Amino acid sequence: MKNRKLIILVIICLFLQAILFISFDFRFTTLPILDGFPVGLATPVVTRLLVYWYLPIIAFSFYISGNIKDLLSNYGFLQISRNYKKEYWLIKQFLKLFVKIILFICLQIALISIITPFHISWTSQFFYLILGYFLMLFTIFSLQYLLELFIDAQKALLIINSYLIISVLAADLIYQNTVTTWPYYLLIPNYGMGFRTGLCEFPNTSTSLISQPAGLIILLVVLLCVFTIAIKKFKTTDIL
């Protein structure tokens, strides 16, 4: 029942996002969710763009919050006892998360393409934008799963979403106050914005903060570390 309500919340937020982008006059180059928004904009514009971009993401974060512990308290324990080793069961949950994010992005792109004036252009740029956006979300939500193995689900939800918002805003502050580039690579949410990875160009402004090839490699390395730590932790977790 809880999951059904949260799925409805995610869908409502996806529709709302698409509706909000209809009336927003901004020079996106592909789709708003893939472009993200560049650094150096006026505060009111940044606030609106951040809310529009972030709205379905926080809804999805609520949807997956506590999933692992909820499953264990229902039938996960029996599955592990009878059919699965602990690590296989946990890997299966990450694979389910993988599929859920793909479905989430597909629905997001479909709604924006149908409801708004923005349309899909099947180019290599579009493919890399989707790949970066997907890997960013998969990394963020995998980190949420990992945190839930160590702390309460509500705390993990708060930490992940705080990190997401702070990362987006911090990139803007860094851009305005220093020429140092390495801090951007600690701010994973920016990896999913085309304006900030150089895949999309904003008129008369260079806002590329992160090298796209390096960013993809870093995300894959982070995911590998997350899976490794999660499996080691789960092996020693008492599920009785």
TrEMBL record:
Pfam families: DUF2705. Signal peptide: none annotated. InterPro entries: DUF2705. The keyword Transmembrane applies. It comes from the Bacteria. The chain crosses the membrane at residues 45-64, 97-120, 126-147, 156-175, 213-231. Keywords: Membrane, Transmembrane, Transmembrane helix. This is Membrane protein. The lineage of its organism: Bacteria, Bacillati, Bacillota, Bacilli, Bacillales.
